[in-house]
Every structure is written in C-alpha cells, then in structure tokens.
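In the current project phase, work has continued on tokenised descriptions of protein folds. One protein thus recorded appears below exactly as we store it.

——
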Amino acid sequence: MHWHDGDRERRHAPDYFVRRADGSAAVVDVRSDARIEPKDAEAFEVTSLACSQAGSRFERVGVPDAVLLANAKWLSRYRHPRCLNGPVADRLRELFTSPRPLMAGADAAGDRLATLAVLFHLLWLQELTAEAMSTELMGPRTVVSLADRGAQ
C-alpha cells in the first residue's frame, strides 16, 4: 500500500492475507505491542481503513504465547505427509472420538513408535485437538480428541 501522510510518501506491506473456510478475508499484521512506534500505528490505521473500504477485515496480532509457540514448534516437526500412515490415522481418529490422554490413545492404536508420529501429524493438521495447548506443554497426559470439523 502507498499513501501520502501530508509530509511524504509512505508504504506498508501487511504480513499476511488470510482466506477463511467461510470465505471471508482478512489482512493480518504481526507486531508485538512493545514494538509499535507511531509510524507503525499510522500504517496499521491506514491498512485498517483500506481493508474496511475493500470489504475485508484487518487484524493486528501480537507475539504468540510462549507455551502455544513451543507446542506448535513441536508439532511442526511432524507436518510432512510421510508421517501419515492411513490405517494408523484411521485407528487414531476412531479412538479419539472420545477424549483420552495422548499416550493412552497412542498405545491403544498400536506400537507407540508407529503411532506417535501419526498422532502428532493429525494434531498438526488439526484433525485431532489437544486441550490446553496455550497453557500447558503437551505431554503423556494431555487430553486429545477428534476436532470439531464444523468449527474450523
């Protein structure tokens, strides 16, 4: 985006454009509150105005919670499709229709070494969901369940 602030030409490139499952759109900037200077605040305000005129939403998000970020980083290790074993994934989806502890579900699905990578991959894909992802590091007793597909 380019605009004139009264004194000089300004420009700003937002961080992300998001198309949601419901078809709505949003423009997102990521910046912690502590790092917003007056020129940044102006850029966000201009971006918000432009988005509203275009029928989109503007969102500024801060730094993710440290625990959520740690959990996401852990799960990102299992994002590659090679972690998906169809029969094991089907068994895990079936088992986690009822919430249960992560390790208990992995063990019930078969050999732990064969099931954990698949379980983490399904969590990465958000087919499974874990309770308290933003407040507790994932562990053996983390409660996991099948994700509510209608909410995504």
